[in-house]
Write a structure and sequence with these properties.
This protein is α+β, with helices and mostly antiparallel strands and about 1900 residues long. The chain contains 65 helices and 44 strands. The strands form twelve sheets. The chain has a seven-stranded antiparallel beta sheet, with helices on one face. Strands 41-40-39-38-44-43-42 form a seven-stranded antiparallel beta sheet, covered by helices on one side.
C-alpha cells in the first residue's frame, strides 16, 4: 500500500524578492510540515511550477495543469502535479516608476496597467504516477475555492493526504475527498510493466516511425536526447512513452521531462540524458553539438553530424518497421487493392499504444533470447550474484560485429536488466514468459508479417489488461468550477486563503494512528523459478552459420591428432597444411579442443619434442583466428589444455604448452579472464550444492547433462535451477546453516582466485622474461576501461584505479615484466573478489600472495628458458648460398626468412601444380643485389630451389608488414620490397632473427639504395673491397684525362658563373666534350671574351701535352661517325671545308657553357654564327636550343630537337614580322634571330628555292620523291588525319584504319586542335579562309606543306599567332609529363606484380592495367613518332620541341630515327642511337632513376623504359627488321636501373667528364671480369652466344616502318610479367651459366644406371623453369648440338656467328640456283608467303610449347620466357608453312577413318610426325588446316582390325587396323594390306622411340 499523495504545496509569486526582470516563486504553505521518514520533501519545487520563470501578466490566463518528474538521490522518481491559476493584485510598479527608476527596462511612454496577475500553483507530490487522478483532485480543490463551496478546503486536503491505495495487483479503489466527489483508481496488475496510457501512440503520431526508431536506438546506446514542445504535458508524455518502449530495459541516466529555464546549463552535462524543454528556449539549444533534438510540434528529429547512432541489426530493423507500419497505418497494405475493404481504421489510441509497445516487446524477445544461457551465478547466498557472459552471447548469436548489440550489452540499462532479472528465483512477468515460452514461435513466424501481427495483438491484449483490469467501471464524479458570466471579473475572485495547518495535521495524525492499530496487509509475493527458454545453440544452427566446416575437414583434424599421438610424424607432417587451413573454421577448432582433451590424463600429457611442436603449432593456429573477445569460447576450452601438454627438457624441468602460445591478444583481455573465472566458480558452487544434497540429485543432473544438446548449456541450466532451489530454501534454514553456506561459497571463490592468479601468470609471463612482448603491446592501463564491469563506480573500479595510477603505458618503457603482470593480476583479483563478495582479509591475503606467485613462476621459467635454448632446434632447411658476380660482395650474410606468396598466382599453385611459395630460406644483401634463396615449404617440391633477386638500385618501395604464417608460430615482422625490375619480395623474418638485426638490414639497404654520391653505386665500387666509397677524392688511373676534364670543368665553371655550380638542381644533364684543335676554333665566327680565349688555350695545350688517343676519343665518342654517315658535316682541321654544305659541326658548346646538358659538338646550320647561337639558346628552357640530330638521306629533310620555349619567348617567336614595334627591343631581336635560324634550316632543304620561284610541294615530289611507293597526293590527306588525331584532345576516338602499303591510314574524325585549325586543314589539302576574314588570295600557298613543322606542347603555345607567309608551322600536341609517367608506372607495377591476391572484380589484372594508363602513354608517344616519320618522309623537316627537351623529346626523336633509318635497327646502330640521343643529349638518368640520396625525393620515373617498351611494340609488329632480339631489349631494361654498369649513370656528359668516367681507355683491362660499359658486355656476350641475335633478321633496304599505335595493337611486354624462380633474373649471364653448370654437376652422379631407358620428358613449370632453355628454339638447338659435336670431335669451336653466316650464304646460293622467290637472306623464310606487311607473315601467334619452327621464328629467343596461361596450341602454327612441313612428316598418306558413332568412313590425309609425336589428319593433301590430332603419347596399342559396318567396299580384310588410345578406339583402313603394314610399322616404331 502507498499514499496517493505525500505532500500538498501551495506556491505563489514572491513579491518581496522581485529584483530585476525575473520574478521568483516561494512556498506559501506545505502539508504535512514535517517530512515523512520514508520520503523526504523534494527541493526546488518552485522552479518546476513555472518552468519558464515566474512573471506577472497583464491579463488573467486560463488555469493550466502538467506533471513534472523529479528524481531524488536514491533515483526514486517523484511525480509533481502542478495546477496553476492566476490571481489579480495591484500593480506594485506604479508608485516606483514615478519615483526615479525610469532607467529600468520600461519605456516611459508605455502605460502600465493598474492591475496585474500573479501565478499561484497547487502542487501535489507523489511517488505514484496517476496523472488523471491528480488532475481531478487539484481541479476539485480549485473548484471548491473558486465556487466557494460549503466544504472546508482543509477537509479536502486532509482527505487527499491520508488516502492510501495499493501499488499494484489489479485491484480498484474508490476514493472521495469529501466534497461530493467520487473517483475509481485502478492499479496495474503487475508493477514491473510500465503504464503508458496512450502516450506511445501520441509520440509515434507526432514524430513518425523512423524518427522514433532513431530515438529508441539512441536512448539504448546512451546518447543525449532533448525533446522540444510548447506544451509541458506533451513533453512529459513523450518522455514517458520513450521509457515505455524501452521495457524491459530501464533508463538509468538523467531523466527530466520538464527542465526549468533556470537550469538550462544541465544540457551541457557530459552524461547521456532524456530531457524535455519548452520551445520557448529553442535558441539556447542550437549550439549543443552532441544532442539529438526531437521537435514534437514540428515532427522532426535532428541528429548532429558528430553523432553516429547504431541502428538495429538488419533483418530486425526491417521487421520492426514493417510491424509498426501495420499497426499505425493498416490501410497501407490495402492501398493498392482493387477492392479495398470498406474500412480498416487503426485501433483506438489506447489499444494502438499497447500494440506499438507489443512490437517493441517482441523486438526485445528476439534481441535477448537465450540470454539466460549466458548467465554465470557466482554466489547464491546470502544474495545471488549473477554475471553475464557477453562474448559467449554474441558469439552464439553470430553478431560479434554488430555495433548496436555491443553497445546495448555494454550499457548501464543492460547491467540493470541483468541484476534485476538475473536471479533465478523471483516473480516473473510478461517478458520472462516471452523469453521462456515464445522464442520458438517468434522464430518460426518472423518471416510472415501477418502471423507476427497476430502475436503482437496477443501481447498488446496482455499489456492493455495489465493497465485496465476492469475496463467497464468508470464512475467518476468530480466537481468542475462553474463557468459563471462574471468569472473573469477580478473583483469577485478572492485570493486563495491561508489554510489552517492544525486541522490538516489532525487529519494526518488520525489516519496514522488508525494505520498502526490495523492488522498488516499481507500480500503473498508469487516467487518462482525463472524458466530459461530454449538454449541458443539450436538457434544458430537453424541459420546454418555454424556448420560451415564440412565433415571431411573435421576428419582431417582428427586424423592428424591421432597420427601425432601415435608418433606417425611423417603422416602428420603431410596433413599439417590441410589442418591449418581447416582451423580457420569454428567447428574444426572446437573439434581440435575436444580431440586434445581426450589425450589428457590427470591434467597432464607428456609429449616428445616433435609432438609438442605440432600440438603448439595447432594451438597457435586455433588461437590466432580468435578475436580478443573469444566469442566462441575456443580460448576458454584451450586454457586448461595449455597447462596440461608439456615436454621434459631435462632433470626435473618441464616446459608446458602455455609458454609457446602467449602471443595472442585474448590473454591480455580482462573480460576474457573474468568470464572464465565466473564460469569456473559457477561450476564449483554447483558441485558444492550437488554434493550437499546427496547422490540421487547429482545423478539426475548428470543424466540431464549427457542427454542435452550442448553439455555446457545443460550445466548452466543445472546451476541456475540449483540456485533457484537454494534461494527458495534459504528462509527455512537456521542461522548456523546459513552462515556455513555463505562461508563455503566464499572460500570456493577465494580458492578459484588463487588458481586464476597462477593461470594468469602462466600466460602473461614470457618464457624469456627479459622480453615483455605481450603486455607492452596492449598497454595494460587500457584494460580496465573495457572490463566487464557493470558497476562503473563500484569499489572494484576505485580499487583498480588506485593501481591504475602507476600503470598505464609507463611499463612499456620500464619493461619490468614482473611488475606489470602483478599489477594486471591485482586488478583482476580486486574486481572479481569485490563483485563476488570475498572478505577483506582474504583479499589482502591474495594481494600479498600474487607477487610471490609471479616471482616463483619467473624462477621456474628461467630454468625452462635455459634448457629450451639447449634443445637441438627443429631441423630447418640448410641455408643455400647464392652465386655472386666477380667484384660483388656480401654486405649482410644470410638471414633466415620466409618468402611469402604475393598476388602472382603462378608460383602459389593457384593455376595448377604444387605451390612453390611460401618458401623458407635466407635473404642476402650484397653490394649489388638483394637475393632470396631457399626451398618451398610444400613437401612435394621440397627439393627444388627458389631464387628471387633484384638489383638493390632498383628498389622503389619498402614497407613493413606483419605476417602470421599459418604454418608456424608467431613471426615477428616482415618487409615488402618492390623493385622497378618488376619483382616483389614479401619476406617474413624467422623468429631466430633478432628484431634489431632486421633494422640493421633495413638501414644497410637504404644506404646502398641511395648512396651519398653516384660514386657510391655498385658500378663504381665494384671490386673495391667492401668499403662503399663515399669520398670522391679517389686517385684516378689516367692522369691525362683527369687533367683534361678538370681544366674543362674549371673553365666551364668560370664562364658560367658560380650560381650554376652550386645549384645542382639546375645542372641538367649534358654529354660529350667536343673540343677541337685551335685552327678550328679560330675559323668559327665566334665572339668570345678574352677569358674564354685563355681557357681555350689551356685546353688545347692540355690536349697536346696528353697523348693523342684522348683526342680521338673525344671525336669518336662524339658520335661524329654518325654525323658523317648522315652527311651532316665532317670534323676536319683543314680550312677547305666546303662552305656549301648546309650544316656544320659547331664547337660552341665545347666548354659546356652554352648548354650544360648538351654534348660538346653540335650540328647547326652553316650560315648561323656561334654568337647567334648563344643568344638564341636563352629563349629555350635549360638553354637547349634546336640542333639537328638526323637527316633523311632521300628527301634531305632534317630532324631537330630542342626544349620548349620559355614563356616570354613564345609570344615573341610568333609575332608576325610586319608588326614592327617603335624601337627594336631585346625580345624582337632574339625572335628575329630565331626566325633566321629557322630560315637557315629551311634553306638547307633542296626542296626550297628562292621565294620568287617558290616550288610547290607537288613539283618537288616528282623530282625528289620518285622512289616513293605511292603517289604523294594519296598520302597527303592521311597525314592530315593523323595530325588531327595527334593534336586532338583526349576525347578523340581513334577512327577506323585500313591498310595501304606499309602505312595504316587513319580516317580519324577527331576534332581539330583549338589552337590553329589551319594546320590540319593544310595538311589535308583543304581550303581555309584567311584568319583575318579577308579574301583567300594566298590559297596556293595555303595548300602547300610547310617546310618545317614544330611539334610543341599545347600549353606552351597559347597566344601565338600564325603568319601566313612563314614557312614553318606549329603542331600543338598534348604531352604526358613525368608525373603522369611516374604514377602510371606505379600502377603498372602494382598490376603486374600485385602484393596480395584479390578476388575483387575491380582489381583484376586487365582492369588494373587499364587504370595504370601505361598503354595510353605508349600509344601517345608512338602516335607522335609515326606522325613525325611521315612528315620527314614526305620532305618536311620537323623540330621536336617539348618540355625540357630531355624526356618526351628524346623518346620521340629516338623512335623517329629507329623507324626511319634501318641502321639504328642493328646492334651498332641501336647502341649509337642510345649513346647519341639519350646519353649525349642529357637524359637525366640519375635523377629519373632516383639513383642517389639527393634525387630520392623525386621518385623513380622510367622514361627510358617507356622508350624500350615502344621499341618492343615495334619489334613485335616487324620481327624481321631488327638485328637484335627481344631479350636484348629486356637486358637493357634490366640493366639501365641495375647500376651494374656505368653507362646509364649520371645526368649529362658534363657530369661524366667531371667524374672522369667519360673516356675510360679501351686498352686498360686490369680486371677483365668487371665491365664498365654495358655495350662492351653485350659485345663480348654476343660473340659467345646468339642470345641477343634475332634469327629472323632480314631487312628490306631503306625501309621506313609505320607501326600501328592503337591500344588494341599493343601487347603487354612479358618483361613485366615473367619470372624464373629456378635461377632468378637471367640478365646477369655469368651467374645463370655458373648456376646451370653446378646443377648439371650435381645431376651427373645419378647416371650409371643406364640400363633403364630414361624418359625424355620433363615437367616445365611456367614460372619456375626458364622455358627458352628447357625448350630452346630450333636454331639455338642446332647451334648447341654443333658445339657439342665439335667438342666431342676435339675440333676448335667455331664462333656461332661464322656458322650462321656460312649457312645463310649457302642458302642464298641455293635460292639463286633454284630461282625460288625468297626474302633476301632469311634461313627459314624460303616459303612462298604472300605478304602484305612482312611482320604479319611471320608474326606468330603467342605460342607456348616449342617446336622447331615456331621458336625459331618466335619474337623471343631469350633464356627466360614464360608462357602466358591459355595460349593457342602450336599445331595452328604449322598451317603457315608448307615447304618446311615436310621435315616433320616422317610418313604420310591417305587412310579411311571410321567416324564417331553412326558416322560413315571417310578418306583423310594422314601425317605421322615423329618430332611432335602425333598423328595428324587433314581433309586433303593440300589442306593447311589440321582437322584433328591423335597424340601418340596416349596410344596404348596398334592391332590389325576387321571391317565394320559401312566400311569401304572391295578392300581386303588385312588392310584394316585399329588404334587404341586411352580415350577411344580409332578404326582405320588403308588402300591395301602392304600399305596397312607400312602404317602399322611406322606407328609402332614411333611408339618405341618414345
Amino acid at each position: 500500500m502507498a499514499r496517493l499523495a505525500d505532500y500538498f504545496v501551495v506556491v505563489g509569486y514572491d513579491l518581496d524578492k522581485r529584483g530585476g526582470s525575473e520574478g521568483q516563486g516561494h512556498i506559501l504553505q506545505r502539508f504535512p510540515e514535517k517530512d515523512w521518514e520514508d520520503n523526504p520533501f523534494p527541493q526546488g519545487i518552485e522552479l518546476f511550477c513555472q518552468p519558464n520563470g515566474w512573471q506577472l501578466v497583464p491579463e488573467r490566463e486560463r488555469p493550466s495543469f502538467f506533471v513534472s518528474v523529479l528524481t531524488d538521490i536514491n533515483s526514486e522518481r517523484h511525480y509533481c502535479a502542478c495546477f496553476t491559476f492566476w490571481e489579480g493584485l495591484d500593480n506594485p510598479q506604479l508608485p516606483k516608476a514615478e519615483a526615479s527608476e525610469v532607467d529600468e527596462d520600461e519605456v516611459p511612454g508605455l502605460v502600465q496597467p493598474a492591475q496585474v496577475f500573479a501565478p499561484k500553483s497547487l502542487v501535489l507530490v507523489s511517488r505514484l504516477d496517476h496523472t488523471e487522478v491528480f488532475r481531478n483532485c487539484l481541479g476539485l480543490i480549485y473548484a471548491v475555492h473558486v465556487d466557494s463551496l460549503s466544504v472546508p478546503l482543509e477537509t479536502v486536503i486532509g482527505n487527499l493526504l491520508t488516502c492510501v491505495i495499493p501499488v499494484a495487483g489489479g485491484s480498484q479503489r474508490t476514493i472521495t475527498l469529501g466534497a461530493g466527489d467520487r473517483q475509481v483508481i485502478q492499479t496495474p496488475i503487475n508493477d514491473s510493466l510500465p503504464v503508458s496510457g496512450s502516450s506511445v501512440a501520441h509520440l509515434f503520431r507526432q514524430l513518425g516511425i523512423v524518427n522514433v526508431l532513431y530515438l529508441f536506438c539512441a536512448a539504448l546506446t546512451e546518447h543525449k536526447i532533448l525533446f522540444l514542445s510548447s506544451s509541458y504535458q506533451r513533453l512529459t508524455d513523450a518522455c514517458r512513452a520513450l521509457l515505455a518502449i524501452m521495457f524491459p530495459l530501464k533508463y538509468s541516466f538523467t531523466y527530466v521531462p520538464i527542465l526549468p529555464g533556470k537550469l538550462l546549463e544541465v544540457l551541457s552535462t557530459p552524461t547521456p540524458f532524456i530531457i524535455g524543454v519548452n520551445s520557448f528556449f529553442r535558441s539556447e539549444t542550437q549550439e549543443l553539438l552532441d544532442v539529438i533534438i526531437a521537435d514534437l510540434d514540428g515532427g522532426t528529429v535532428t541528429i548532429p553530424e558528430c553523432v553516429h547512432i547504431s541502428l538495429l541489426p538488419d533483418p530486425l530493423l526491417q521487421q520492426t518497421q514493417t510491424a509498426l507500419s501495420m499497426v499505425l497505418d493498416p490501410e497501407l497494405e490495402m492501398a493498392d487493392h482493387a477492392f479495398p475493404p470498406s474500412s480498416t481504421q487503426p485501433s483506438t489510441l489506447k489499444i494502438q499504444d499497447k500494440e506499438i509497445r507489443a512490437v517493441f516487446l517482441w523486438l526485445f524477445g528476439q534481441l535477448f533470447n537465450g540470454y539466460r544461457w549466458c548467465l554465470h551465478i557466482i554466489r547464491i547466498h546470502p544474495e545471488p550474484v549473477i554475471r553475464f557472459h557477453k562474448a559467449a552471447f554474441l558469439g552464439q548469436r553470430a553478431l560479434t560485429e554488430d555495433d548496436f548489440l555491443m553497445k546495448v550489452l555494454d550499457g548501464m540499462a543492460f547491467a540493470g536488466f541483468i541484476s534485476e532479472r538475473g536471479p533465478p528465483y523471483r516473480p516473473t512477468d510478461l517478458f520472462d514468459d516471452l523469453i521462456a515460452n515464445q522464442v520458438e514461435r517468434i522464430r518460426q513466424e518472423e518471416c510472415s508479417p501477418h502471423k507476427v501481427m497476430n502475436h503482437i495483438k496477443e501481447l498488446a491484449e496482455q499489456l492493455f489488461k495489465n493497465e485496465n483490469p476492469y475496463p467497464a467501471v468508470a464512475m467518476h464524479k468530480v466537481q468542475r468550477p462553474a463557468e459563471s458570466p462574471g468569472h473573469n471579473d477580478p473583483k469577485n475572485l478572492a485570493m486563495f486563503p491561508l489554510l489552517d495547518d492544525v486541522t490538516v495535521q489532525l487529519f494526518i495524525d488520525h489516519a496514522a494512528a488508525k494505520l498502526q492499530t490495523a492488522p498488516p496487509v499481507v500480500k503473498a509475493e508469487l516467487k518462482g523459478m525463472v524458466p530459461s527458454g530454449p538454449p541458443l545453440g539450436d538457434i544458430v544452427d537453424r541459420h546454418g552459420h555454424v556448420l560451415a566446416n564440412s565433415a571431411r575437414r573435421l576428419e582431417v583434424v582428427r586424423n592428424c591428432i591421432t597420427y601425432i599421438f601415435d608418433n606417425k610424424m611423417l603422416e602428420a607432417k603431410k596433413l599439417m597444411p590441410a589442418v591449418l587451413r581447416a582451423l580457420k573454421g569454428r567447428a574444426a577448432r572446437v573439434c581440435l579442443t575436444q580431440e586434445l582433451n581426450q589425450h589428457v590424463l590427470q591434467n597432464r600429457a607428456v609429449l616428445d619434442d616433435q609432438q609438442f611442436d605440432y600440438i603448439v603449432r595447432m594451438m597457435n593456429c586455433t588461437l590466432q583466428d580468435c578475436s580478443h573477445m573469444d566469442e566462441h569460447g575456443i580460448a576458454a576450452i584451450l586454457l586448461p589444455l595449455v597447462t596440461a601438454f608439456c615436454r621434459k627438457l631435462g632433470a626435473g624441468i618441464t616446459q608446458f604448452a602455455y609458454s609457446c602460445v602467449q602471443e595472442h591478444m585474448v590473454w591480455t583481455n580482462m573480460q576474457f579472464w573474468e568470464a572464465m573465472f565466473y564460469s569456473d566458480v559457477q561450476n564449483h558452487i554447483r558441485a558444492l550444492y550437488l554434493e550437499a544434497d546427496g547422490g540421487e540429485q547429482s545423478i539426475a543432473s548428470r543424466g540431464q547433462q549427457e542427454s542435452g544438446p550442448a553439455a555446457g548449456g545443460q550445466e548452466l541450466l543445472g546451476a541456475l535451477e540449483l540456485a533457484s532451489e537454494q534461494s527458495r530454501l534459504w528462509p527455512t534454514l537456521s542461522k548456523e546453516q546459513q552462515s556455513e553456506r555463505v562461508q563455503k561459497e566464499e572460500s570456493t571463490v577465494f580458492s578459484q582466485a588463487i588458481h586464476y592468479a597462477n593461470r594468469m601468470s602462466y600466460l602473461l609471463l614470457p618464457l624469456d622474461t627479459s622480453k615483455n612482448r605481450l603486455l607492452n603491446r596492449s598497454g595494460i592501463g587500457d584494460v580496465e576501461s573495457v572490463s566487464n564491469s557493470y558497476v562503473t563506480n563500484s569499489i572494484a573500479g576505485s580499487m583498480a584505479e588506485s593501481y591504475d595510477t602507476e600503470s598505464g603505458f609507463e611499463d612499456a618503457e620500464s619493461s619490468d615484466v614482473a611488475n606489470s603482470v602483478v599489477r594486471f593480476i591485482n586488478r583482476f583479483v580486486d574486481k572479481v573478489c569485490n563483485e563476488s563478495g570475498v572478505t577483506n582479509e582474504h583479499l589482502k591475503a591474495l594481494h600479498t600472495m600474487i607477487p610471490d606467485i609471479v616471482q616463483m613462476h619467473i624462477e621456474t621459467l628461467d630454468a625452462v628458458h635455459r634448457e629450451s635454448k639447449r634443445l637441438p632446434p627443429i631441423q630447418k632447411p640448410k641455408l643455400l648460398r647464392p652465386i655472386l658476380l666477380a667484384g660483388e660482395e656480401l654486405v649482410m650474410d644470410g638471414m633466415r626468412v620466409h618468402l611469402i606468396s604475393d598476388g602472382r598466382e603462378e608460383a602459389t599453385g593457384a593455376l595448377g601444380g604444387p605451390p612453390l611459395l611460401p618458401a623458407e630460406g635466407a635473404i642476402f644483401l650484397t653490394t649489388y643485389r638483394l637475393i632470396f634463396k631457399g626451398t618451398p615449404n610444400d613437401p612435394l617440391v621440397g627439393e627444388q630451389v627458389v631464387t628471387r633477386s633484384f638489383p638493390i638500385a632498383s628498389l622503389t618501395k619498402e614497407k613493413r608488414i606483419s605476417v602470421s604464417l599459418s604454418m608456424d608460430q608467431f613471426i615477428q615482422e616482415g618487409l615488402q620490397l618492390r623493385s622497378c625490375t618488376f619483382q616483389l619480395l614479401k619476406i617474413a623474418f624467422d623468429e631466430e632473427v633478432a628484431s634489431d638485426l632486421a633494422e640493421v638490414f633495413r638501414k644497410h639497404m637504404h644506404k646502398l639504395r641511395y648512396p651519398q654520391h653516384v660514386q657510391g653505386t655498385f658500378a663504381f665500387t665494384v671490386g673495391q673491397s667492401g668499403k662503399t666509397l663515399v669520398e670522391h677524392k679517389t686517385k684516378d688511373k689516367n692522369q691525362s684525362i683527369k687533367t683534361l676534364s678538370k681544366n674543362l670543368v674549371k673553365s666551364a665553371k668560370r664562364t658560367i658563373g658560380r650560381q650554376y655550380v652550386t645549384r645542382k638542381k639546375y645542372s641538367p644533364p649534358t654529354w660529350e666534350n667536343r673540343s677541337s684543335l685551335q685552327s678550328e676554333l679560330d675559323e668559327d665566327e665566334l665572339s668570345v671574351s678574352e677569358e674564354l680565349d685563355q681557357s681555350s688555350l689551356t685546353l688545347s695545350s692540355t690536349i697536346r701535352s696528353s697523348d693523342r688517343q684522348t683526342m680521338s676519343n673525344v671525336v669518336e665518342r662524339a658520335c661524329c661517325r654518325d654525323y658523317q654517315r648522315l652527311g651532316l658535316g665532317t670534323l676536319s682541321n683543314s680550312l677547305t671545308r666546303s662552305k656549301n654544305e648546309p650544316f656544320r659541326i659547331s664547337t660552341v658548346n665545347r666548354m659546356y657553357t652554352v648548354c650544360r646538358s648538351y654534348p660538346g659538338l653540335l650540328i647547326v646550320p652553316q650560315s648561323i654564327p656561334d654568337s647567334t647561337i648563344q643568344r638564341i639558346s636563352r629563349c629555350y628552357r635549360q638553354n637547349r636550343f634546336p640542333v639537328v640530330c638526323w637527316r633523311n638521306s632521300r628527301t634531305k629533310a632534317v630532324l631537330l630537337r630542342s626544349a620548349g620555349l620559355h614563356a616570354k619567348g613564345v609570344v615573341g617567336f610568333f609575332k608576325s614580322p610586319n608588326a614592327t614595334s617603335a624601337g627594336p627591343s631585346q625580345v624582337d631581336s632574339t625572335s628575329l634571330e630565331q626566325e633566321k635560324y629557322m630560315q637557315a634550316i629551311i634553306s638547307s632543304m633542296p626542296s626550297y628555292c628562292e621565294p620568287s620561284g617558290r616550288n610547290t610541294l607537288g613539283g618537288f615530289t616528282s623530282t625528289h620523291m620518285s622512289t616513293s611507293d605511292s603517289s604523294d597526293k594519296l598520302r597527303q590527306p592521311k597525314i592530315g588525319a593523323l595530325m588531327k588525331q595527334v593534336m586532338g584532345g583526349k576525347e578523340d576516338v581513334p577512327g577506323t584504319f585500313s591498310r595501304g602499303g606499309k602505312w595504316g591510314s587513319i580516317r580519324g574524325s577527331g576534332r581539330l586542335s583549338a589552337y590553329n585549325p589551319e594546320v590540319g586543314n593544310r595538311l589535308s589539302s583543304k581550303e581555309s579562309p584567311q584568319p583575318n576574314g579577308g579574301p583567300s588570295e594566298a590559297l596556293f600557298l595555303r595548300q602547300q606543306r610547310a617546310y618545317l613543322y614544330i611539334i610543341g606542347d599545347k600549353t606552351q603555345l597559347k597566344g601565338g599567332k600564325q603568319d601566313s607567309f612563314q614557312q614553318w608551322e606549329v603542331v600543338p600536341i598534348e604531352v604526358c609529363d613525368v608525373r603522369q609517367v611516374k604514377n602510371s608506372f606505379k600502377k603498372l607495377i602494382k598490376a603486374c606484380v600485385p602484393s596480395s591476391a584479390t578476388s575483387e572484380p575491380s582489381m583484376t589484372f586487365h582492369r588494373c592495367l587499364e587504370e595504370s594508363e601505361w598503354m595510353c602513354l605508349l600509344h601517345r608517344v608512338l602516335q607522335v613518332s609515326v606522325l613525325v616519320v611521315e612528315l620527314l618522309d614526305t620532305g618536311s623537316s620537323v623540330m621536336v620541341s617539348l618540355e625540357d627537351g630531355w624526356d618526351v623529346t628524346t623518346q620521340v626523336v629516338s623512335l623517329v630515327q629507329l623507324l626511319s633509318d634501318p641502321y639504328y635497327r642493328t646492334f651498332d646502330g641501336f647502341r649509337l642511337l642510345v649513346e647519341k640521343e639519350w646519353l649525349s643529349f642529357g637524359h637525366r638518368f640519375s635523377h629519373r632513376g632516383a639513383q642517389t640520396l639527393a634525387s630520392q625525393s623525386s621518385g623513380f620515373t622510367p622514361v627510358f623504359l617507356q622508350f624500350l617498351d615502344c621499341v618492343h611494340q615495334i619489334h613485335l609488329q616487324f620481327p624481321m627488321e631488327f638485328e637484335f632480339s627481344q631479350y636484348y631489349l629486356k637486358f637493357l631494361a634490366y640493366h639501365y636501373v641495375s647500376n651494374r654498369f656505368r653507362t646509364f649513370l649520371l645526368d649529362s656528359d658534363y657530369e661524366r667528364i667531371e667524374l672522369g668516367v667519360l673516356y675510360e681507355e679501351k686498352g686498360e683491362r686490369k680486371n677483365p671480369q668487371v665491365c664498365k660499359s654495358v655495350w662492351d658486355y653485350i659485345d663480348r656476350l654476343n660473340k659467345k652466344t646468339p642470345i641477343f641475335f634475332n634469327y629472323m633478321f632480314s631487312p628490306e633496304d631503306e625501309e621506313v616502318l609505320r607501326p600501328y599505335s592503337f591500344i588494341s595493337n599493343l601487347k603487354v611486354w612479358d618483361f613485366y610479367t615473367e619470372e624464373t624462380l629456378s635461377e632468378g633474373p637471367s640478365y646477369d649471364w655469368e651467374l645463370v651459366q655458373r648456376g646451370r653448370q653446378e646443377r648439371l654437376a650435381e645431376e651427373v652422379p645419378d647416371k650409371p644406371d643406364t640400363t633403364t631407358p630414361k624418359s625424355q620428358r620433363r615437367i616445365v613449370w611456367p614460372c619456375y623453369d626458364s622455358r627458352s632453355r628447357v625448350v630452346p628454339d630450333a636454331i639455338t638447338k642446332l647451334l648447341q648440338d654443333l658445339q657439342s659435336l665439335e667438342a666431342e670431335l676435339g675440333l676448335p669451336p667455331e664462333k656461332w656467328k661464322d656458322t650462321w653466316d656460312k649457312i645463310k650464304a649457302n642458302q642464298r646460293a641455293e635460292a639463286k640456283l633454284e630461282n625460288r622467290p625468297s626474302f633476301n637472306s632469311s634461313l627459314l623464310m624460303s616459303s612462298n608467303l604472300s605478304h602484305q606487311r612482312r611482320s604479319q607473315g611471320v608474326y606468330l601467334p603467342e605460342s607456348g610449347v616449342g617446336s622447331s619452327i615456331n621458336l625459331a621464328m618466335d619474337r623471343e629467343t631469350s633464356t627466360t620466357s614464360t608462357p602466358v596461361a591459355g595460349r593457342p596450341s602450336t599445331s595452328t602454327l604449322y598451317s603457315q608453312f608448307q615447304s618446311t612441313e615436310s621435315e616433320n612428316r616422317s610418313f604420310e598418306g591417305i587412310l579411311f577413318k571410321k567416324g564417331a558413332l553412326l558416322k560413315p568412313w571417310k578418306p583423310r590425309w594422314f601425317v605421322l610426325d615423329k618430332t611432335k609425336h602425333q598423328l595428324r589428319y587433314y581433309e586433303t593433301r593440300q589442306d593447311k588446316e589440321c582437322k584433328g590430332v591423335i597424340e601418340l603419347a596416349e596410344v596404348e596399342s596398334v592391332i590389325p582390325g576387321t571391317p565394320t559396318m559401312g566400311a569401304p567396299k572391295n578392300i581386303e580384310e588385312k588392310a584394316f587396323f585399329d588404334l587404341k588410345t586411352t580415350k577411344r578406339v580409332y578404326n582405320f583402313c588403308a588402300q591395301d594390306s602392304p600399305n596397312a603394314q607400312l602404317w602399322l610399322d611406322s606407328i609402332q616404331s614411333c611408339l618405341s622411340d618414345a
